[in-house]
Design a protein that fits this description.
The chain has 168 residues and is an alpha+beta fold. It has four helices and seven strands.
Length: 168
């Protein structure tokens, strides 16, 4: 078993590598790091190497909890704010169904931006539930879209059952 200090250093290195990957999507990665050092969120363009699925807060929290319960190492970056959860996925997402799920994509002139806070800090009422991080053999961990779709479906069923218990 590794001492906690070594595990924390490894996680920090993974997060630093993940944030480097994220900043590489801006025109000026150094400026992104400077903004994060000052505690500011940085707008990151979506669509080149990743897309984002935005879910309503309760559904998103339940879906991410389901993902993390099974294999937390396979959960990619996840942002939370006062009303939504945003999950980063590869650019080949699964089909999204149901109310409230929005696929955030952008290409060319219609590039969409996601405001990304510094790791471990809140900025613009946004914080990382799971910060970007690199894993062995992967420049950045992104959530598998099929696993997310399954987690969303399961979360929807659980929320529905909680709101409509049998026999009531």
């Amino acid at each position: 078993m590794m001492p906690a200090v070594i595990v924390q250093a490894k996680l920090t290195n993974q997060v630093v590598a993940g944030m480097q990957w994220l900043s590489s999507h801006t025109d000026t990665p150094v400026a992104a790091w400077e903004a994060w050092a000052r505690g500011h969120a940085v707008p990151i363009p979506v669509g080149r190497d990743f897309v984002v699925v935005r879910l309503p807060g309760g559904l998103g929290q339940a879906a991410v909890a389901q993902l993390a319960a099974n294999t937390p190492d396979l959960v990619g970056p996840v942002l939370v704010n006062h009303s939504a959860v945003e999950v980063f996925l590869p650019t080949t997402p699964a089909v999204w169904q149901g109310p409230g799920a929005e696929l955030v994509v952008g290409h060319g002139a219609s590039t969409r931006m996601i405001k990304c806070p510094p790791p471990g800090r809140e900025a613009d009422r946004r914080k990382w539930l799971f910060p970007p991080r690199a894993l062995p053999g992967r420049i950045a961990a992104l959530t598998d879209p099929h696993r997310l779709a399954e987690a969303i479906a399961l979360a929807r069923r659980r929320i529905h059952l909680a709101a409509h218990p049998a026999g009531v």
